[in-house]
From TrEMBL:
Source organism per UniProt: Agromyces cerinus subsp. cerinus
Organism superkingdom: Bacteria
Pfam families: TetR_N
DNA-binding region: 36-55
Residue ranges annotated for the HTH tetR-type domain, each copy included: 13-73
Protein name: Transcriptional regulator, TetR family
PROSITE patterns xrefs: HTH_TETR_2 (PS50977)
InterPro entries with a match to the protein in the record: Homeodomain-like_sf, HTH-type_TetR-like_transc_reg, HTH_TetR, Tet_transcr_reg_TetR-rel_C_sf
Length: 210
């Protein structure tokens, strides 16, 4: 066990970001189910009580991890207010989610399934809606498109990410079985088709033929 003085120095030098970065490393290596305050403390070589200087509990730690995952999204700023079409904004955003799922498949689920009304998710979504409004959508259109596109992307990518953990133990599909339903090329195709449908029905108001 480290001397008391060394433990105190570790506690003082730790930051909230140290905790979340170490937690993401642990999740990616061992899986989300293995994340506990005790195991995270071992990852950081500190006493478990040292963590509570920076997070209140495990739920607060999860919120902090989601905050870092949002920061890790490769999102570029629009060239100018209203400079990008809304479809380009949605594509760029959800392809950034796709790329995050590829980089951090075990941690991605925490962001994908985080409730909309919690911090830091709510401000992130509010910025996204505001960007869509600046691109010419109404507030109602922007919120509807966000909800529908997020439901598609989260559902697809959570299943895809979970499948990566099982890839090494899966048996090859039987001859004649359906394959390729969850590859990332199909994610992009589905996103493009979804946006075309949303543009026709929600934005331009075209009624589908019966």
């Amino acid at each position: 066990m480290a001397p008391r003085q060394a433990v105190e120095e570790i506690r003082q030098n730790l930051t909230r970001r140290d905790l979340t970065s170490a937690a993401i490393t642990l999740i990616e290596r061992d899986g989300l189910g293995k994340l506990t305050m005790r195991r995270l403390a071992a990852e950081l070589d500190c006493a478990p009580m040292s963590l509570y200087t920076h997070v209140r509990n495990r739920d607060d730690l999860i919120d902090a991890i989601v905050d870092e995952l949002i920061e890790r999204l490769d999102l570029r700023e629009p060239r100018e207010p209203g400079g990008d079409g809304w479809q380009e904004i949605v594509c760029q955003t959800f392809r950034a989610y796709r790329d995050l799922a590829v980089r951090l498949p075990n941690s991605f689920e925490l962001l994908a399934l985080a409730p909309y009304d919690t911090s830091p998710v709510a401000p992130h979504l509010a910025r996204f809606v505001a960007t869509l409004e600046a691109a010419g959508l109404t507030a109602e259109q922007a919120q509807q498109i966000l909800g529908i596109a997020d439901a598609y992307a989260s559902g697809f990518l959570v299943v895809w990410a979970r499948s990566q953990a099982r890839r090494g133990t899966e048996q090859p599909p039987e001859q004649g079985g359906i394959t390729g339903l969850r590859d990332l090329a199909m994610f992009d195709q589905g996103l493009d088709a979804l946006l075309a449908g949303l543009d026709a029905t929600l934005v331009r108001g075209v009624t589908p033929a019966e």
